[in-house]
Specification:
This protein is of the alpha+beta class. The protein has one domain. It is 32% helix and 26% strand. Strands 1-2 form a two-stranded antiparallel ribbon. The two termini are 22 Å apart.
Length: 66
């Protein structure tokens, strides 16, 4: 059985705000992302990639349901 890939729906990315400090942001608004009441700012690059990937994955799941 073949599994179809999920549609890509990128809405979140990371950007360097200060030297070695990264922010997860919404690519259409530019706003920093808030998760459980915490802004996803001033993070190490490795730290910032996980929430961005997770949020994009969740968006892909929503697209697959449509």
């Amino acid at each position: 059985m073949k599994i179809a890939p999920l549609p890509v729906r990128l809405r979140y990315d990371t950007r360097e705000e200060q030297q070695d400090k990264w922010t997860v942001f919404h690519i259409f608004t530019g706003a920093a992302v808030e998760i459980d009441g915490y802004l996803q700012i001033a993070m190490d690059v490795e730290e910032s990639e996980d929430p961005a990937d997770l949020l994009n994955y969740q968006e892909s799941l929503k697209a697959a349901d449509e």
